[in-house]
């Protein structure tokens, strides 16, 4: 039965786009209705396949941005101007259109609401997408698990989900959000533009003695640097889970 369940997740399903919304000037969230969707865990991803009229097809992987909610799945796609798939998803796809997806995929980089330890999320750029699914899953489950998010992005205009993150961090639910702007900062911001370093991690991340579950997602260089700094600061490498992406247009 377990094998049948796994195989069921590896079939291609035809989803229907029910809504799209712009997150930033270069990123769009796509809401899908996926008949027969088996459910997913926060941190998992799907494969998306596009097929041209001449039969040529290509596929990319995208992280799921939403908490489990019946047959509804949300993907947030960042536009890559020279990409093969993202321009269609971020600029052309419209409500009512079909979209082939396969999943959910992945069992390592996931968070389950029943786990009690504090959670530290560290995102670089669009690496915030699967971490946002964890934030939303926490809220959906009504758990009081302490969450911290350190989100590195170029500037306020490039920050995905900023309004929602600010709202959730102000509602007293125990979510703490710290932004690290690398190119442009808001007016009155205390820190100059800078990359995540050891000093910022010491300030914004749960201390090692709390033994947090750590999830780091972003470009390969960012993930490797952050993971190395965390281990150097005393965090147990066995509690650090990483997800990275490169320039090919894959997930997040």
From TrEMBL:
PROSITE patterns with a match to the protein in the record: FAD_FR
Domain FAD-binding FR-type: residue ranges: 10-111
Cofactor annotation: FAD
InterPro entries, per database record: Cbr1-like_FAD-bd_dom, FAD-bd_FR_type, FNR_nucleotide-bd, MRET, OxRdtase_FAD/NAD-bd, Riboflavin_synthase-like_b-brl
SUPFAM superfamilies: Ferredoxin reductase-like, C-terminal NADP-linked domain, Riboflavin synthase domain-like
Top-level taxon: Bacteria
One Pfam family it belongs to: NAD_binding_1
Alphabetical UniProt keywords: 2Fe-2S, Iron, Iron-sulfur, Metal-binding
UniProt name for this protein: Ferredoxin reductase
Organism field: Streptosporangium vulgare
């Amino acid at each position: 039965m377990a094998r049948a369940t796994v195989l069921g997740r590896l079939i291609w399903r035809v989803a229907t786009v029910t809504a799209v919304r712009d997150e930033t000037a270069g990123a769009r969230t796509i809401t899908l209705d996926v008949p027969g969707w088996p459910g997913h865990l926060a941190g998992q991803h799907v494969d998306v396949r596009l097929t041209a009229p001449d039969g040529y097809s290509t596929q990319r992987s995208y992280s799921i941005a939403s908490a489990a909610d019946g047959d509804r799945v949300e993907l947030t796609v960042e536009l890559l101007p020279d990409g093969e798939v993202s321009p269609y998803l971020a600029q052309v796809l419209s409500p009512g259109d079909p979209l082939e997806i396969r999943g959910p995929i992945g069992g390592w980089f996931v968070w389950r609401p029943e786990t009690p330890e504090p959670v530290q999320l560290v995102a670089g750029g669009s690496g915030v997408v699967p971490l946002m699914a964890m934030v939303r899953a926490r809220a959906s489950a009504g758990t009081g698990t302490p969450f911290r998010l350190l989100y590195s992005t170029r500037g306020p205009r490039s920050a995905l989900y900023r309004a929602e993150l600010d709202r959730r961090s102000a509602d007293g639910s125990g979510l703490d959000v710290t932004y690290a702007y690398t190119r442009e900062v808001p007016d009155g911001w205390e820190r100059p533009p800078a990359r995540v370093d050891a000093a910022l991690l010491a300030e914004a991340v749960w201390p090692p003695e709390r033994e947090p579950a750590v999830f780091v997602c972003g470009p390969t260089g960012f993930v490797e640097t952050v993971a190395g700094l965390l281990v150097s600061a005393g965090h147990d490498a066995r509690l650090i889970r990483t997800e990275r992406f490169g320039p090919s247009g894959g997930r997040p």
